[in-house]
Amino acid sequence: MKFYFSFLFIPFLFSCNEASKSKKENKMTNAQIHSIDSVSNEKANAYSDMIYFEGGNITIGANDRTPLESPAFNIEVAPFHLDVYLVTVSDFSVFVNATNYITDAENYGDSGVFDFEKLNWMLRSGATWEYPLGPNAKKAIGNHPVTQVSWNDAAAYAKWAGKRLPTEYEWEFAAKNGENLKYPWGNDPKINNSFMTNVWDGKTIQDQKVLDGYLYTSPVGSFPASKSGVYDMVGNVWQWTATTFSPYNTDNAFNKKVKVTRGGSFMYDKALELSYTNTFRAQNTVDSSIFNMGFRCAK
Predict the structure, then answer these.
(1) Which terminus of the chain is less hemmed in, N or C, by CB atoms within 10 Å?
(2) Between helices 151-160 and 30-37, what is the axis angle to 10°?
(3) Fold of 49-294
């Protein structure tokens, strides 16, 4: 299993010894597969807690920030719906209980966690969506965003819910509310010197005052909604998208198992306040799970 931990705005690769791992097959019974494929009418037609975006022409990326965001270009985005809230631990629990789904982190037996005492990333045995910091730490809280979920896990949940993951263009359109905004709330990282989302407040990994009230994840909807009415569009946790990662300025071959993540998180990133702009891009492999990455769904 490979992880891209975004300390840098160009994420670096962290890998475990794959030879020492044997991933269990995530086999499901016919009934369980049917449960994912056959969504109830109530779920299939449920647009509650979703915002409708009419779509339209928008500038994607920026030329004055980080290399992976440039060159900026215009694109037409079709109409879509997007979840108001990040998928929570409770939401994911309902899915797991209904399908007996086993996540990639559970299959591998470990997952990515940052050790704040040793100040380094590590693969922690037993870290899962229920225990994102490991089995000896506190259990995940129901109204917090689910973490330690891979792209595979997020896509499975979205399919079960009768939805899908948003493309990175849809994500950016929603974050900008169809405007050319730097952040979902405007062009400054704070408003009246107040944090608008759950982010790292220090300039280094050793410097964190927890001024926004949360060292790790915060309950979804704890901070003001964006101009579009969506909560936690940036900050709190990185968000998986449906888009395969490729630089904007190249037609070179790309790895279909590496997907774009958006939005930044509660965790330190060397890009600092640029890491949670509407245009910042990161990436990770489809089977990677870390303690500061989650998702929301689209239709």
Answers:
(1) C
(2) 70
(3) paralog of FGE (formylglycine-generating enzyme) (3.90.1580)
| Cβ contacts of 162 within 8 Å, gap of 6 or more | 39, 43, 44, 46, 299
- The DSSP 8-state label assigned to residue 274 in this structure reads G
Kindly tell me the burial class for residue 238, based on how many C-beta atoms sit within 10 Å of its own C-beta (0-12, 13-18, 19 or more). buried
Bridge partners (DSSP) of residue 184 are none
Phi then psi dihedrals of residue 256, to 5 deg:
-65, -10
pLDDT of residue 107: 98
DSSP 138: P
Tens digit of pLDDT for each residue in 280-292? 999 999 999 999 9
Q: Quick one: which of 129, 148, 149 has its CA closest to 139?
A: 129
Q: What is the pLDDT of residue 48?
A: 72
The pTM (predicted TM-score) of the whole model is: 0.87
Buried (b) or exposed (e) across 157-174, using 16+ Cβ within 10 A?
Answer: bbebbbbbbbbbbbbbbb
Rounded to whole angstroms, how far apart are CA atoms 298 and 160? 13
Mean pLDDT of 245-261: 85
- Cross-strand bridge partners of residue 239: 262, 294
What is residue 192's predicted lDDT score, i.e. its pLDDT? 93
Question: What is the C-alpha separation between 172 and 278, in angstroms, rounded?
Answer: 6
Tens of pLDDT, residue by residue over 36-80, are 443 433 443 456 799 999 999 999 999 999 999 999 999 999 999
CA distance 11 to 3: 9
> Looking only at Cα atoms, what is the longest distance across the chain?
55
Whether cis (ω within 30° of 0) applies to the bond prior to 71 is yes
225: left (phi over 0), alpha (psi -120 to 50) or beta: beta
